[in-house]
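Page 42, continued from yesterday. The earlier attempt failed because a stray header line got pasted into the input along with the sequence. Redoing it now with the clean sequence only.
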Amino acid sequence: MLGKFTQAYTNSLMSAVNEKAQPRVRDDDPRVRRTRVAVLNAARGLFIQHGYAGVTMEEVAEAAGVAKRTLYNNYSDKAALFATMVEHTVAYAESFAQELNQTVFVGVTKANVSTSLETLGVRLAQAILRIEVISLRRMLIGESRDFPGIGADYFERAPGQVLQALATGFEALGRRRILRVRDPQSAATQFAYLIAGSHLDRALMTGEVPAQSVIDATARDGVTTFLARYGLT
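This time it went through. C-alpha cells are written below.
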C-alpha cells in the first residue's frame, strides 16, 4: 500500500509541476477555474480534518458541489488531487523565496538595514503563521509516518527554499559589509526562528495562531535580537 501510494503521489506531483502533462480540460475556461478552486478548497478542508486515508473522492465531490465525473475530469485520482493541493501551498512559498532573491535584499543598505529586515521579518512571520499553512503542516506531520516522502518534499520546496533564500541574502549583505555573517545558513535559521519559531511551535501543537499584532511585535523583537548578533554596530 505504501509503495503504491508513494509512486502515485510522486507521479501526480510531477504532473502538477511538469508543463508537459497537460490537464484533460481547458485551463482558460472560467468554469473550469471555478470548479478547481471549489474542489481544492473542499479537499483541503477534508484532508486536514480526516487525513489522506479518511477522505474519498466521492466526499470531495459532494463537499465541492460538483459531479463525481467532473471531479475525475480534473483530477485522475485522490493522489493527484492531494498533490495539487500541496503544490498550491508550495508555490506560494517558492514565489516568496524568489522574491527574496530578486528584490528584498537588493535595496538594503547600512542606513536602512534595520528597517528593511524588520519589514522582511514581519512579512515572513505573517506568511509562516497563516492558519491554512499551519493546518497543512499539521496534516503533513500526521501523514509523514506512513508517507515520509510528502513531508520531505514539502520541507525542501517550501520552508527549505525560504531558508536558502535568506541565507543567500545574508551572505550578500555580509559581502557588502552591511551585516557580519560568517555562516549564512546558521544566520538564516536563527532569523526564521527568532521572528516566528516560538509561535510556530505552539501553533503546530494547538492549531491556533496568535493575533496579527502579536505576530508583528514578536517579529520586530526578533529582528532586534538578530541585529544584536549580526549587525555591525
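Notes: DSSP finds eleven helices and no strands in the chain.
Reminder to self: strip header lines before submitting.
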